[in-house]
Each structure stands twice: as C-alpha cells, then as structure tokens.
# Entry
Amino acid sequence: MIAKSMKPFLEGSSVIRAMFEEGKKMAKVYGEENVYDFSVGNPGLNPPQEVFDAIDYINHEMDPHLVHSYPSNSGYESTRKAVADDLNERFGSDYTPDHIIMTVGAGSAINVIMKTIFDPGDKQTVFAPYFVEYGNWASNYGAETIVVPASPETDFQPSVEGLKAALCPEVKVVIINNPNNPTGTIYSAETIKALCDVLKEAEKEYGHPIYIIADEPYRELVYTDDVVPFIPDFYDNTIIAYSWSKSLSMPGDRIGYVAVAPKSDEAEEFIAAAIVANRVSGDTNAPTIMQLIVERCIKARSDLDYYKRNAADLYKIVTEAGFEALYPKGAFYLWIKSPVEDEKEFIAAAKDERILIVPGSAFCCPGWVRASFCISNETINRSAESFANLGKKYFG
Amino acid sequence: MIAKSMKPFLEGSSVIRAMFEEGKKMAKVYGEENVYDFSVGNPGLNPPQEVFDAIDYINHEMDPHLVHSYPSNSGYESTRKAVADDLNERFGSDYTPDHIIMTVGAGSAINVIMKTIFDPGDKQTVFAPYFVEYGNWASNYGAETIVVPASPETDFQPSVEGLKAALCPEVKVVIINNPNNPTGTIYSAETIKALCDVLKEAEKEYGHPIYIIADEPYRELVYTDDVVPFIPDFYDNTIIAYSWSKSLSMPGDRIGYVAVAPKSDEAEEFIAAAIVANRVSGDTNAPTIMQLIVERCIKARSDLDYYKRNAADLYKIVTEAGFEALYPKGAFYLWIKSPVEDEKEFIAAAKDERILIVPGSAFCCPGWVRASFCISNETINRSAESFANLGKKYFG
# Structure
C-alpha cells in the first residue's frame, strides 16, 4: 500500500539520521557525556542573544495579527527587504525584495527551485562528496543525478574536467555547496570561475539555461582567510538557497530563502513560478515568527570562535591519533581518511569507542568519513582518549 | 525554462490568493476600514493568551539547545505524546506518540500522506465544493482527482450515490473535510457512515486499501449542537491531517500533524514511510518552537463565541439584503447562492461595493460564493450597508 515511488527513498533511508537516532539511544545507555556524537550537523551552540531578544519583541511588542496570520506566500515584504538589503550591502548585488522567497529552511528552498525547473527526465549534476538528499530531492520531480567523482588529489576542489564529462543536454541544474559539507573545504574563486566558464559554454551549446543552485547554509562559517566566492558575480543563472540553521544555530526552526539573481534569464517569470511552487508544496509560507526573527537578526551570527576552536582541537586530536584529515576551512565538518578501504569497518570500530561518525559512502565518496564538530568543545576534548585508542588499533 | 509540469499550477493559480493580494492593495487605496475582505480564511482574532505565555516559557525557561536544534524528523516525542493523549481523551482512541508525525501545517501533512500513498496514475476522490489545492497537491505526485458533484439539494451533505459513481480501482484516497470549507456545513454521522460503508465495499472489490484523508483544521470550530463525527470510529484506514491554524488562530506559524489510525492496514510500515516522506519533502521537521507551543497549548482554543457571533451577524446581514445562504454550522465560511448564474459577475458587483468574496468555481461549485467571517465583528457589521446596496442591484 506504500507508493512504489517511495521504495527508493525507503531503501536509501538516511544513514546520518539513523546514526542520529542511535546516538540518542547510546546517550541513554552510557550517559550523554560518554558518547561522542559527531554524526549530525546539529549545532551544540545556543543561538545568539539577538534571537532571544527578537522573540521577546515579536511576542510582546508587535501586532499579534501581523505575527500569526498568513503573510504573502513569498513571505513578509519587510523580511525579504532585509534579506535583499543585506546581500546588496555585503556583495554589491542588486536584489530587490521581489527576488527573495522565504522558505522552510534550505531543504525546502532547494525543493522549490527544483519544482520550478525540473520535468521528469531532466538531470542535475553534483560534485562528490555531496549531501545525498540532493538526489532524493531531484527525484521528487522525476529528475536524475549525475555525480562528478571526488578529487582527493586537489583537496576536494571540484574537477572542471569532471564537470565537462558529466554534462549533457538534459542537465538543467548544477548544485554547488560552498563552504562544503562534508569536506569542510572552500571552493576557490579560481575553481568557481572555471566551473562557470564550462557551464556558460554548455548553455550556448544546448540552447537552454543551466541553473546553479548555490546551497549556502555555511556561507558565514569560515575559519581561515579564504574568501567564499559570491557565485552570482561569476554566473547569471544562479539561484541561492540559504538557511539560518547554521549561522544562527537554529536548525530545528526551519527558516531559509530562495534568492533569484536579478540577471538570471526571465527572472520575473521564474520568481512567479517559484512562489507558486512554494505554495503548492503544501508549506504555503515560511513560518511567520521565524521570518520576523531573522529580519531582526540579519546581522547576528553564531559565535564563530567556538567553531574555530572546535575545528583546531578536533583536527589536532584526530591527526595526533595517527589519522589523515583535511583541515576544515569552513562549515563544521572534519573530513577524515579511513585507515582501511571499507570505511564502514572503521566506523564500526569507532562506535566501539563510543565515537559516532558518518561514512563517506553516504556522500558518494567511500574511503572517507565525516565528523561534525558543532558539538561542545568539552565533548570534543573528552573524545581525545577514544580517538587515541582508535588510532592504536590501526597504527599500533 | 520553467518546468512544463509547473504550467497547470501557474494557469490554475490560486483565485483566493489573488483576491487576498488584491484586498491588501484595495486597503491601501480606500483605507483598511473601508474594504470588506471576506476572501481568505485568515483569522482576525489573536491567538489565545496561552500561546503568548508558551512563547515566553519556551524562550526563557527551556533549554535553548532543545528548543532550537534538530528534533527527530517526526517531531518531539513529548509533543507527539501530548497530541496522542489529547485525541485519546477526547475520542476514546488509542493513538501512541508513534502514530503522530508533526508537520508544517495541514497542507504539508496532506502532502506527506499523498507522497506516501500515490504513484503516478493513481486517483483520489473529493466532494465538491472542495479546496482546489487538494487537486494541486495530488498532481505533485502524478495522481488525478475525480470530483463528486455538489449536492445543494441536501444542503451540501456529500452524495453517497455520487461517491459510488466516482470510484474505480485506481482510487487510493478519498478526502473528507469536515467541518467543511467552503460550505460551513457539518457532515453528519449518518453521512459519514454511509460513505465509509461504500468505501469498505470498494476496498474488498478492488483488493487494496482506500485511505480516507480526514482534513480537520476546523474540528473545534462548531457553532450549533451538531457533532463532528470522528472518522476513525467508522473506518480503519483513516489518516487525519490537522492544523492549529484555525483553532489557535495562527495560520502563518505553520504547524499541524498527521495521525495514522492505529487500526489502519500495516500502520507501522505506513508511518515509517510517512516520516521519510516528511524528510525528503525538504521540510525535514515541523518548526520546533511551534511544536513546543502547541504541546503547551493542547487544550487552548480561539474564542469560539467570536466566530459564533460573526456567523450569526453575517448570515443576518446577507439574508436581510435578500441573498440565499446556508447557516454556518462550523468552520468560518458563509456559503451564499449567487443571484445570477455566473457568480463571477456577482463577485465583480460585490467588489464595486468593496466586498471581496471568492467564487464557488474556485471550489468546483459555480453559482455559489464563499465569504470568510473570521475577520473582525466590526468589519462584518460595517459591511451591512454595502451588502444592502448589493442586494438592491438584484432584488430592487
């Protein structure tokens, strides 16, 4: 009685989410402080004070009818204006409120974009390692996913030649997630420019737009001097999907947006369709309190130093235990090379030490594992002994 | 560049929403107090005090990490328990927290259910007049909608013979919306029993389950002695889609649930699939603050007397102006017979009097119009002169 079309989703049920549920069970058995749960990107940090203040203001100072009744499907104009103004101030762009659609987080934003673009039989291109939900979301609309293989030799900067090989006339979307989940790397301006040049050629050759979906929930989470390129500067047909889950440490609250680049092809028609896509998805509109929170917190940020310290501490612990890892430049993930070919063996051994990490195969990149360091610094430092024990198993 | 599959959605773009946007424009021109906007079911009432108190408690007394981080995809166990316990207490049912999935409002709940059930080529049956978004939502999953014609002769109680004629082996879902939008009627226990008997026979004949989606955002909004039948008492394969939009006057906040009847076929498998459907929709989970609000407000209600008074006042105004209308037993809509065959002419004439009402054809029931009376009682009473003028145009 379950739809046949649900079967692939059920079989490919999220490894990360399963690990998350398991972590909660293990915490009950061993005590929360004795489980080192690096599985889900679930910020351990509280939202900044501005969020709490905004909630008080919304609850006590604003007109309750405005706060709780239906806004337009695209969201409050004041919220969309705050988003557009902030983008323009930071990136010299020229968004208006009409280019912005408020959504139920970035996941919903990407679904809105995909529903607007994809017909059954269309394709998208993604760069491994990638968040596998991208494939599930595309298949919601009958679209297939072509994966560009990972490039460990360039520290996981995506391969331009790989992109060329993964294009065909059916490709309507290329997803770029920068800073990157799961590698913690930042794609350079040089990489982005080279990828965009390939896509511009392909647009000409195929005679239709290819949209870049710039999935940017980690845009503000950068721990080095690297600069995250603003893709609309390189490529007109760029649609940004954003979420405040990470920058304000509130992933449960589900708030994000779609930003359609003003220069993109027939932007106005695209936006009108995307607003309808947002409505007919059943979400109707992004939750109103959340819209009003982010409007008042547009400049607020989670404590970056917290993540920066976690990045440094976990990298040190893991490499001192003998493992090879990529130093995290952004996002909040440490990307670790499995000491054995089948990283699932490594993950099982880690679990014996009460360390929960996620297999690279869940990101289409076996042989590596992901550790989320958004948890408390105390937990990270308490995990040192377990990592050391784990290292001894492999390196004696 | 817009998906071909978006075209039907764009062409059938919501008449109600267009009216809503127009109402906002007219309010700017004529002043808010001079526009009688009966278009959208957007409660004019503020949420009850419990909602404001709950927000304060959540913001100041609860662990911020619990409040703002990811819950399970199905929602907080404590929230699901509150929902299950409340249903059991009110209806003598035996839901557990595991039968409940928290969603982004009822729209999202229905989409989750449909994604779980529908394969392309499947069908659903709905009773006119009905909320046309049902058809859009089904077509998200490639399913078609068969409409049972309206029965004005029985005051819009759905036709049992009509249901029989509208069934075929491809039908997997029948939607029942009670109390009803747009007629304001309540389907009686007798009607529900007769419909369920037909469906039980059809399940046997076709050899597969037919699910009733009980869309019940108006369950608590009843103004007469009529009782809203609890459909799981009549039919095992019932899945409830609920929203607090109306009962707590907070439609912008987007919070609802799916409740899978414990006795439904392979309930456990269904629930597991529905949780995945909720995740891969991109929503990930229902907004956390909203979950915690409704958990603390499970017994709270909007002021029913407010709507009851509105129902009586608007009915009086409209019928005294010479129009025929159905007395609203529930929901917050007055269903008015158009004095001319093409109700769009009537709607244009009403607009000249700054009265905004919605055509029955938007509910697959031309010749009638819907007036939402969830706006302020002052606005309703101020509209009397305009309705009287409108009546004079038709009845002299």
User: Anything to note?
Assistant: Chain A touches chain B through 83 residues (CB under 8 Å). The mean pLDDT of chain A is 95. The two ends of chain A are 53 Å apart (CA to CA). Chain A is about 40% helix and 15% strand.
